[in-house]
Write the structure tokens for this entry.
Amino acid sequence: MKTTNFADRLTSLIKQRKSCAVVGLDPHWSPIPESIKKSAIKQHGKTPVACAAVIRTFCTELIDAVCAHVPVVKPQSAFFEQFGPAGVEALYAVMEHARSKGLLVLLDVKRGDIGSTAQGYANAYLGESEIDGEKFEPFPADAVTVNPYLGSDSVLPFVETAAGHGKGVFVLVKTSNPSSAEIQDLVVENETVYMKVAQKLDAIARDHIGESGYSLLGAVAGGTFAQAGEKIRRCIPNCYILVPGYGAQGAGAADLKPFFNEDGLGAIINSSRAISFAYAGKPYAEKFGEAKWQAASEAAIIAMNEEIAAQTPFLNRKTDR
Amino acid sequence: MKTTNFADRLTSLIKQRKSCAVVGLDPHWSPIPESIKKSAIKQHGKTPVACAAVIRTFCTELIDAVCAHVPVVKPQSAFFEQFGPAGVEALYAVMEHARSKGLLVLLDVKRGDIGSTAQGYANAYLGESEIDGEKFEPFPADAVTVNPYLGSDSVLPFVETAAGHGKGVFVLVKTSNPSSAEIQDLVVENETVYMKVAQKLDAIARDHIGESGYSLLGAVAGGTFAQAGEKIRRCIPNCYILVPGYGAQGAGAADLKPFFNEDGLGAIINSSRAISFAYAGKPYAEKFGEAKWQAASEAAIIAMNEEIAAQTPFLNRKTDR
């Protein structure tokens, strides 16, 4: 299993669960149900350890609520790091729990550095570390996000380490935020910077294609920019595209079509707040409310799967493909 | 103290110690002295905790050896993250130790993300987190490095949080590695991408200038590219430039001149391996060797200070300015 190409592992889970949705684990503090906070403070006081316990409990229960319906969860490292070392321990525990539930863990760390430092990050999240012949996996991730600003010698250590361990890499190409245009949309010889990045990716990705026809090297392209998505899709036919921006950030199911290949695969669609805090908004607030927040999240991910399936018949959960 | 502009804190320490050197804490595993490893394995077995103990001990002793001679240390987060949560705990302890020795801690994390996620990272490294009114500092850093690929809405949360807490931010402009050219040197309207980034920085930096005339917002520009350094220097007169690449990466003292302002300030020069593992190379191997590795590091940082002072009379340790 370990040396199966990551794209093959991902493709097989997508087909099995008939879902290309990714649930983002972004444990924003304020909407986490009060009952979880009270119990953590009671046990640990008003401490960083209590903060860590809160986000760990919340993410663990969220995973339990959605794990039957999706192939991948995407913990956002910042929300854990902001509680210090205790938060990072919670991240580890959440990742381990996700794996135990049969999910792939795409850790959103957006790391990027050079040479031996990039290798350090690759060891941390895609490889292994070693002491006197004894090896261990520092964090139980199956894939990470990587920032390309430092060039290909910052990306290759991740790709090579991933290749040796059945892991995946998603490189930021065009991000979903408004000021992504400042660098990514600059035009160089009639081509945007993000397309230059996509072209580099394509070349590297082709060396790491699995039986599914997809590469362990993927891209990140925001669902809020459908036109960019279409260009990127054509440029990197063998890459999975991780598409953030669906739901809370404003992209709808119809905006997603350009990110898929004709085979109905090639995109995984992330939603964070709209799933994790579904209980707090329409249409779930009335039916579920805070007390049944897990059921609201489950209903929201089922609805999301159906919305996306309507765009990509391959994922249609009503037929038996 | 906390609300003093970071650039003022830095400038005052540079003047006091007559040094603009930064000691990089990049605890590469293999050259760490065997005695440290043996003792950690004896105490903790061949475990991630033992790995963490090794790098913690090494960095702590390194800090003790160099703290009288420099204003800043720069832990490289990847080398800690690669040992999992235990490694991150070691990072925290090392940072705390550096602070207790009167050093500024510039944490090299190269984070970059959008909106609330960028704010999460800013909280983690420059601000604070809170539980039920009780505030705490997640990691004891004084400044961090930030990646600009996602645009200014990924940088501003760091800058604003830094401003409120007397902290600093160093944005990657032109990195020291060979393939930094792939994106950073692309030419847009007769200007490189890295100069576009520098121009954006300049505008933001001007809103955060302290009494020293310098801004809490700085830049990273590799010492291996002196010509780029000169252009960047002129573009961002109020920014400190963190210059990596000195020593092991190939830049010499003479290459550094363009990174300084005429006032002899404005640059901080990082050296990692050439200081931390000075014992293993010329000219220190014979005199000190592994048993006296700390003394070798101290000798190396004193020599580095003198080399740089020859380029910037302001730092001349032989006069009494």
In short: DSSP finds twelve helices and twelve strands in chain B. The mean pLDDT of chain B is 94. The domain at 6-27+76-273 of chain B is CATH 3.20.20.70 (TIM Barrel).
